[in-house]
Design a protein that fits this description.
Blueprint: H1 2-24, E1 34-38, E2 42-44, E3 54-56, E4 62-64, E5 69-72, E6 76-82, E7 86-93, H2 110-117, E8 123-125, E9 128-132, E10 138-146, E11 149-158, H3 162-170, E12 174-179, E13 184-188, E14 198-204, E15 209-216, H4 219-222, H5 226-244
Parallel strand pairs: 1-7
Antiparallel strand pairs: 2-5, 3-6, 4-5, 6-7, 8-9, 9-10, 10-11, 11-15, 12-13, 13-14, 14-15
């Protein structure tokens, strides 16, 4: 009798477990498992479960609404989870590819910069290394140095491309602040300062030249001296840009 009761309990438990496992995954997604969208586009997930719960692994790249509408935010890759069981890979592609960003060699020595960027520099001293480009919309790059190590990197662009340049940065970074006083826009590479590792400043250097400066950022150590560092880098960059004679 005891064996009969025990067998019955096991059978009921097994049936319940099987029922739960099949119901948990009892929905289908007709959307592709991997999608590509441009930075200004959206894509709708089609799911048989009308009450499905959606979430994005990285909202810096793309967000998803309660109804499964994916909205591109910035270029990169992320995943959209559906009910915590299935996922869709989302790749956000850029609309603007006409600028080549510099190699962000923070902490590199001069020799390391020469090895990765080249020895065809136009100026090189204790303050940094300056390169002039002969093709494309970027007119030059500057690697700022302190104590023999790269502390910040600049990309120099003609002001005739200012709107295109700003949109290029918006496709890749999150806008933080803008100052009309000195025509400077600040971008960060995360949704919050706590997660930010790079700060990007876009500034009008002259009537013909824009300076985009990339600076490493650590929330714990940079918070109190961020403005001071930014101005120091800008002043340092201005000296080298003058030596490049890019007007």
């Amino acid at each position: 009798m005891k064996n009969l009761i025990l067998c019955s309990m096991v059978a009921v438990l097994f049936t319940a477990l099987v029922g739960c496992s099949s119901n948990d995954d009892d929905f289908s997604i007709s959307s592709p498992k991997s999608i590509e969208i441009l930075s200004n586009e959206t894509s709708q997930i089609t799911c048989s479960d009308t009450k499905a719960v959606y979430s994005s692994k990285d909202e810096y790249i793309a967000t998803v609404s309660e109804n499964g509408l994916i909205s591109a935010k910035r270029i990169g890759e992320t995943y959209i989870d559906v009910n915590g069981q299935k996922s869709i890979k989302v790749t956000v592609k850029p609309l603007i590819t006409s600028f080549t960003e510099p190699q962000l060699l923070f902490g590199a020595t001069k020799d390391e910069v020469y090895s990765k960027v080249g020895t065809n520099y136009s100026t090189s001293n204790d303050s940094g290394i300056g390169y002039i480009t002969t093709s494309g919309r970027v007119k030059g790059y500057v690697y700022l140095m302190e104590d023999g190590k790269v502390t910040a990197v600049c990309m120099l662009v003609s002001t005739i491309y200012i709107e295109n340049l700003t949109n290029f940065l918006l496709e890749r970074y999150m806008p933080a602040t803008f100052s009309e006083e000195n025509y400077t826009a600040i971008f960060i590479n995360a949704l919050s300062l706590e997660k930010t590792t790079i700060v990007i400043g876009e500034q009008v250097y002259s009537t013909s030249l824009m300076n985009v400066i990339y600076m490493p950022y650590d929330h714990k150590t940079s918070k109190s001296r961020g403005e001071e560092d930014k101005q120091k880098f800008i002043n340092q960059a201005n000296k080298i840009i003058k030596q490049l004679n890019l007007q």
